[in-house]
Design a protein that fits this description.
alpha+beta; five-stranded mixed beta sheet; four-stranded antiparallel beta sheet
């Protein structure tokens, strides 16, 4: 084999086998390695760039460009034909040409030197190793999961071939790793999905949801304490529907993954005596469930509200006072409408009525009003028997179990003894 001077045309013949671009810069000396008429390798020396990391560790002081050009050369490119690789010809080409370049010092920036220290084998000394940035490491981690060879990340051909072999779903998961969610004000918060796990078949939507849940951006259960601090501070009540809408629409707020997440927080808030639950009738608050009581399903109707516990105590005290003084307050309850199917015995303030029976065909949309009446009767009587007959519709077995039976269990009622199903 022969090493001899040549020109950039030989470099261009082998440039397709190099991992970087074909442009080698302003050449100072070019040498080739040949075996007969066969071109085996090429090395290109160029004039040095103005700045280079680690140069100040070797060269004294700050040199002018003229001083750099006189005393320093840069190995810009070195390539060996694939047929002659792995036998040390890269180190040989550097070792044999260093004395012939014509400058006392030679520098080289080598991306691949970590994996193949051929320059050190040729007699050069490693001065500085620059660690990759966190962003570069993150990208390398993602690429390695999808089978990219980190040693060939500088090869446009390797990257192009690998990208073409990936499915559209793999490309989507690989590229979209940052999700921006609305934050307070007009800002957006970046949520990093991290490096995908090899073999993980979750879709992008599933990955986004899981990460948002882990980071606390989405909640499957809203805390009752959070609801009280945000919506009942210096307020007597807050509408449940407005609370749900606010959690969904206000940037930076804790986001429920469903309406049930908010309903859970409200039920727990009443059970744990954080607040009460009632409705607004006109300007008055009708507290249906006092702090510490069990609650049924939350309706999120326009007039449904959570009530500050102090306000609940005041309402309860007022009702007990009225009962002790013999006054019967029916204020706040709608009078039966014509055709509603509601019939009541006439109340009398002159004597006590020990028992009352009510037959009701509940109008659609008036369930909350009926519950108000039930709450009033519970304050007057120790025992109330309620029979519900639902017709002209249907319910699934899942809804029967999840909503009706579960509510009865929370109330301490055996659903198997209380429910009669007719098919």
């Amino acid at each position: 084999m022969v090493i001899e001077g040549t020109c950039l045309s030989d470099w261009r013949r082998l440039s397709g086998f190099h991992y970087r671009s074909h442009h080698a810069g302003a050449s100072r000396k070019v040498f080739r390695l040949r075996r007969g008429d066969e071109l085996c390798g090429v090395i290109v020396y160029t004039y040095p760039p103005p700045g280079c990391g680690g140069r100040h560790l070797v060269l004294p002081g700050r040199l002018s460009m003229k001083g750099l050009n006189l005393g320093l050369s840069t190995i810009s490119r070195i390539v060996i034909h694939p047929k002659y690789r792995i036998i040390g010809l890269g180190a040989t080409l550097i070792r044999e040409t260093l004395p012939r370049v014509g400058t006392p010092c030679v520098e080289m920036i080598a991306v691949m030197a970590k994996y193949n220290p051929f320059a050190e084998k040729a007699g050069m000394k490693k001065v500085l190793e620059q660690k990759p940035s966190e962003e570069a490491l993150r990208i390398a981690g993602v690429l390695s999961v999808f089978g990219f060879d980190l040693k060939l990340l500088g090869s446009q051909k390797h990257i192009s071939n690998k990208l073409q072999s990936l499915s559209p779903e793999q490309v989507e998961v690989m590229l979209y790793r940052l999700v921006y969610v609305p934050a307070k004000g007009d800002a957006f918060k970046a949520v990093n999905l991290g490096i995908p796990t090899y073999g993980d078949k979750k879709s992008l939507d599933e990955s986004v949801y899981e990460q948002l849940r882990i980071d606390g951006e989405i909640s499957e259960k809203i805390s009752s304490v959070v609801l009280a601090s945000k919506y009942l501070t210096n307020k007597k009540y807050a509408k449940t529907k407005q609370i749900y809408d606010s959690l969904l629409r206000t940037p930076g707020e804790e986001r429920p993954n469903s309406i049930e997440a908010v309903a859970y927080g409200i039920r727990e808030g009443v059970r744990q005596a954080v607040f009460g639950l009632g409705i607004i009738i006109g300007e008055e608050i009708d507290c249906r469930y006092y702090p510490g009581e069990m609650t049924p399903n939350i309706t999120f109707e326009e007039n449904e509200v959570i009530v500050d516990p102090k306000e609940c105590i005041a309402i309860k005290t007022k009702l007990e006072t009225c009962k002790q003084t013999g006054k019967m307050e029916t204020e706040g309850f709608d009078q039966p409408t014509k055709g509603s199917g509601l019939s009541l015995s006439t109340f009398s303030t002159a004597s006590e009525i020990p028992e009352i029976q009510i037959s009701i065909n509940v109008p659609r949309g008036q369930v909350s009003q009926i519950m108000g009446l039930m709450n009033f009767l519970q304050q007057k009587y120790q025992s109330i028997n309620l029979q519900i007959k639902a017709t002209d519709g249907a319910i699934s077995d899942g809804d029967l179990t999840d909503h009706i039976k579960e509510t009865l269990k929370q109330l301490g009622i055996d659903p198997e003894k209380s429910i009669v199903i007719k098919k």
